[in-house]
Model the fold of this input.
Amino acid sequence: MFYGFGYPMYYFDWTYVLVIIGAVLSIGASAHINSVFSRYSNVRCVKGITGAQTADILLRRASIFGISINRVGGSLTDNYNPRQQSVNLSEPIYGRASVAAVSVAAHECGHAMQHSENYFPLAIRSALVPAANIGSRIGIPIILIGMLFSSGAFGDRLVTLGIWCFGLSVLFQLVTLPVEFDASRRALKAIKENDLLAEEEYYGAKKVLTAAALTYVASAAASILSLLRLVILFGGGRNRRD
Ligand SMILES: [Zn+2]
Done:
């Protein structure tokens, strides 16, 4: 692998193992949500309530008004948009009456509830979005540019700056975790309080939301491992072997 002028072109980079572990975790979590989701998408819920109806009921019961409930393309693309004040539900969620549809729609309403209550971790997360977007895009390029400077403090500073930029995107993923866990906790509570699912279906909802939360845990772990790799490779300044 080529890291800069002071390095040989190829050598065994053991730190790549960290990236592979991260990738395996992410692939595993995504396979798990896909299997749990498809299982509970095909279970029609006893009360026959669709995702869109779930969102409508839960938002009204929580006295949250003025939020539009939209249908969006794709699968697992469901989200709450705080700026547009909309709950966006994918095709398998919006119009279907399944355990998965009720669970996911309730989760997005959980985010709307967080927003209406000014839930603090959500506010931090929203504030971090622009910095994290920029950081994740320019972190690695800055490190690579820093590596091109074969000597001097300037290159080292660029490398350090790049690691910090990448760190911002990791921080964002970490702040995302309590926000997601809390939205699912609110979702399950609301499903129970409003009696949207039958008892055994409620356990299915728990499984769907836990599997969804695991994808966030896996991607946070993967990004921590990538950051760790960057720190191991470049964090202590560059040891030259000229
Ligand atoms: Zn969420």
